[in-house]
Fold this protein.
Amino acid sequence: MMGTTHGVLERVRRFALPEGVVACRGTWLRQVGEMRFGPDSRWLPFEAEQWFEGHDIDFRWQAKVRMAPLVSAEVVDAFKNGAGTLTARVFGVIPLARARGPETDRGEALRGLSELPWRPFGFGEGPSIIWEATKSDGLRASFDDGRTRAVLEFEVDAEGRVLGGRTSSRPRLVDKSVVDTPWSGVFGEYRMFDGLRVPTAAEVTWHLPEGLFTYWRGRVIEFRVLR
């Protein structure tokens, strides 16, 4: 039987916040992992920090990616006040990539939604997110701030653990064009930090016509609630 929206949300909150509501202004984490730019590309190691707003989907991911021996790129991926940005600079100075605009806004909004398990207070009432239970007893989150709209479905198990999220349409840059492409992410290895139960392992995949392309995988090595 399909659960009610309130019931599924409560299940997620009880799992993620077993000690009850945690007063905070957001969360912070440190990650290590690897990423690649194409199915045949090599994996590039990274170290990153990420900041999340407590009751919204705003975030800032700041990473150092090792491109080659003695060559690193500084990457910033963010969504704030309805605007998404992506910048990458070699040695922090030489521009490598830069993205802004409506498609970037939607792509970063989807990332912000998908990473709610790292700020689980967001699974509840909010001015910009409408929740709906799905037939698979998961959750559909529809974000709409009047300028950007993004929809993501979460897979939730019987305990309330969020196993992953997916969307049928996330903007993907192909050469100089943007192509809406199915996209998904998975979470695992939940641990307790500061009264929250959050995932410490994740990976992200594009669903291309020629097959699955996992392009990012990371592990949380530190996590804090920002009071």
